[in-house]
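User: Can you model how magnesium ion sits in this protein?
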Amino acid sequence: SIKAFIFDLDGVIVDTAIYHYQAWRRLANELGFDISEEFNEQLKGVSRMESLDIILAHGGLTLPDEKKAELAAQKNQWYLELVSRMTSEDILPGVANFFSQVRKANLLTALGSVSKNAPLILERIGMTEAFYAIIDGTKITKGKPDPEVFTKGAAELEVAPAECVVFEDAVAGVEAGKRGGMFVVGLGSPEVLTQADFVAPSLNALTVDEVLERFSK
Ligand code: BG6
Ligand code: MG
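Assistant: Here's the modeled complex, given as structure tokens:
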């Protein structure tokens, strides 16, 4: 039976996906090219340095490691400027209600994000206490689509992967959950999140009972 829910952060709990996109786009523009929203789908859930590599390849640029470190730091600085204005008002619609149902159902909760900024964002929106375990970009060696971030979450909660449901908005994140042996609810478009067990537009469109029913055998 299902014992735990593991949540991605960016694009699931808060709409920071848009801030990541804005900061990357600003960087690409400074380098002399542009990135589209459609292109941005492949960056979701992907680590900072891997995202930079994908963007540079898109712009046809090859740069030395020191320069790349500089650009990644610049992007993060712009991202932090956007994030520093966040408050609990920025929690996505339906999240607070969904979490109160999660508590009533006595489910365990973990955060599974490859972002190194995840703890900072949780503090800003006042949701640190909503998670029994927090796995972020500082605790993993491989980003999504590798399952490490989710399997570490399950291990900290002391539950089996098959007892976990992952909530993800990213193609790479859905793949990570499936590779980890978990049930995966995609949040977004079914045409994009084709590997998910099922897809809903957002947590606002779901109830905990509905999710549990889907995965109870
Ligand atoms: C993921 C985002 O949660 O974190 C990605 O979906 C981002 O867009 C990644 O690149 C790494 O984040 P950070 O905050 O460590 O640069
Ligand atoms: Mg995400």
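A couple of observations from the model: Residues 8, 10-12, 17, 44-45, 169-170, 173 surround magnesium ion (ligand 2) (CB under 6 Å). The chain has a mean pLDDT of 97.
User: Helpful, thanks.
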